[in-house]
Amino acid sequence: MSEEDPSSDFDRLETPPGGVPVVVDTEAGLEELLSALRSGEGPVAVDAERASGYRYGQKAYLIQLRRGGAGTWLVDPVPFGDLARVDTALAEAEWVIHAATQDIPCLAEVGMRPRALFDTELGARLAGLPRVGLSAVLEYYLGVTLAKEHSAVDWSTRPLPEPWLRYAALDVELLVELRERMERDLREQGKLEWAEQEFAALCDFTGPPGPEDPDAWRRTTGIHRVRKPRSLAALRELWETRDEIARERDVPPGRVLPDGTLVDLAHRMPTQASGLASGRKESSRTRQRRAEQGLLRHQRAWLAAVRTAAELPEEELPEPARRGDTPPPPRAWAEREPAAAERLTRVRAGLAELSERLEIPVENLMTPDVVRRVLWRTPDERDAQAVDAATAELGARPWQRELVVPILVEALAAHP
């Protein structure tokens, strides 16, 4: 390790002090786990590993748990219908998770959901840390750095290699100790109550709608370029066809056919196999290869989807996406609504000053979408009470409203 390497000042943890646990994948092992969790005490460190980029969906393929008096446990959720019994055993425990929004949806899928939570990634943001990855936060508070060589591997692999299991166990080894140090820091900064409000809100987090959402196809990257109803119908049929293929093959939809290729097909609506290929180039060689292979491998399916769209009656064509109360991109505000653009400029300056003073990222002071919605379609009444109610309805927490509403009210008054 070179003298210039900043990590040389930290202890590097490469193996759990208690060794790498055996993976729980049998009913007998699960019963041992439940007994240990019930006899344990205090918060429980929780983490989950997915096979993002390798498998369809965001399913958990390994769950890590560590609790005082219970030790560290690695659980393979695949052999079990669900882990509701684990959830029950932890019903009274506070969960400690790093970046909870990444793990809560896949944990909920197997029947596990926190009733109380401490998110060390979000806590680090509120505490003003410049880097909030787990290794960086552990370095800051505990002087320890973790080996992180296996963060993007295919966790659906069976059996899981021992080095991967070692990495997984390390992810929960120090989470509870980290939580204690971070709580002390947040309290000293006067931010603990703010953090607690954020953590409470996370307990109800559900994540974005899944593919079962009837409008999921509208989230296709590049859909804004598709305006004709018939082309939108083609995109919908192509998206649903791709999703079915991906589900059957258990691969991410983007590995079947990239979004850009779907949009291209929806525009052109080819009727023959010779027309599937186009001069369009994907953003990388890998994506280009997937596009070419996907078009060839499933050409009948793509042509059938386009044909279905072409034959739909006019009344069954999808409508263009309704804007509703969603503001346009900020870059368009100056032309479409100059007063709103002035309000946004003023608020951005106020939030930047507040962010620097409190050492909290702007996006954590109040979600940018909430700010834009309030400034674009202003309340009929522009006093603090009305603006506070508007931000509350959009999900802003009390601490956020206390800090940010005065900035919004001032901008609304200056540029009505």
What is the strand and helix layout of this fold?
Elements: E1 11-13, E2 23-24, H1 27-39, E3 41-50, E4 60-68, E5 71-75, H2 84-89, E6 94-97, H3 100-109, E7 116-119, H4 120-127, H5 134-142, E8 144-146, H6 162-173, H7 175-188, H8 192-202, H9 229-249, H10 253-256, H11 259-268, H12 285-297, H13 299-310, H14 333-336, H15 338-358, H16 362-365, H17 368-376, H18 384-393, H19 398-414
Helix pairs in contact: 4-7, 5-7, 9-11, 9-13, 15-17, 15-19, 18-19
Radius of gyration: 25 Å
Helix percentage:
40-55%
CATH architecture of the largest domain: 2-Layer Sandwich
- Tally of strands: 8
Based on CA inertia axes, which overall geometry fits? globular
CATH class of the largest domain: Alpha Beta
Number of domains: 3
Summarize the structure.
This protein has 416 residues and is of the alpha/beta class. It contains 19 helices and 8 strands. The strands form 2 sheets. A 6-stranded mixed beta sheet has the order 2-5-4-3-6-7, with helices on both faces. Strands 1-8 form a two-stranded parallel ribbon.
What labels describe this entry?
globular, 416 residues, two-stranded parallel sheet, disordered N terminus, DNA polymerase, domain 1, alpha/beta, 6-stranded mixed sheet, 19 helices, Nucleotidyltransferase, domain 5
Structural notes for this entry:
With 416 residues, the protein is an alpha/beta fold. It has three domains: 6-202, Ribonuclease H-like superfamily/Ribonuclease H (Nucleotidyltransferase, domain 5), CATH 3.30.420; 216-316, HRDC domain (DNA polymerase, domain 1), CATH 1.10.150; 330-414, DNA polymerase, domain 1, CATH 1.10.150. The chain is 50% helix and 10% strand. It has 19 helices and eight strands. The chain has helices at 27-39, 84-89, 100-109, 120-127, 134-142, 162-173, 175-188, 192-202, 229-249, 253-256, 259-268, 285-297, 299-310, 333-336, 338-358, 362-365, 368-376, 384-393, 398-414; strands spanning 11-13, 23-24, 41-50, 60-68, 71-75, 94-97, 116-119, 144-146. The strands form two sheets. The chain has a six-stranded mixed β-sheet with strand order 2-5-4-3-6-7, with helices on both faces. Strand 6 (94-97), helix 3 (100-109) and strand 7 form a beta-alpha-beta unit. The longest helix has 21 residues, at 229-249. It is globular, with a radius of gyration of 25 Å.
